[in-house]
Design goal:
Layout: H1 3-29, H2 32-57, H3 64-96
């Protein structure tokens, strides 16, 4: 496997695992904070390991651009995963554990 293939594979694994580990607890417990924290920990571990791996692969002379380009890609992926996870969990919170739509209660003075 080439380094590029591994790069994209790790990006995909980070996205999928962050989603699974973040959404599963939300589905079971309906706790937004705990679910976001669980997904964020997995995202941080995968992104951190991926950045460390990429930096160790491209640590030679003349490889600064490839090294920084890959690290930037993992950084953008990390932020995107966090944002997507938060809004997915927020949407689930509204669907699963939300209060529902407001109920209109007529005022006694209304005719």
């Amino acid at each position: 496997m080439t380094y590029d293939t591994i790069f994209w594979l790790l990006l995909g694994v980070g996205f999928v695992m962050t989603g699974i580990v973040g959404i599963w607890p939300m589905w079971k417990t309906e706790k937004l904070g705990m679910s976001f924290l669980a997904g964020s920990v997995v995202n941080t571990l995968i992104a951190g390991g991926s950045i460390w791996w990429w930096a160790s692969v491209f640590n030679g002379e003349g490889q600064e651009f490839s090294k920084m380009f890959g690290i930037f890609g993992y950084g953008v992926s990390y932020v995107n995963n966090e944002v997507l996870l938060f809004f997915a969990l927020l949407g689930m919170k509204r669907k699963i554990g939300g209060d529902g739509p407001p109920v209109y209660e007529p005022h006694p003075d209304d005719d």
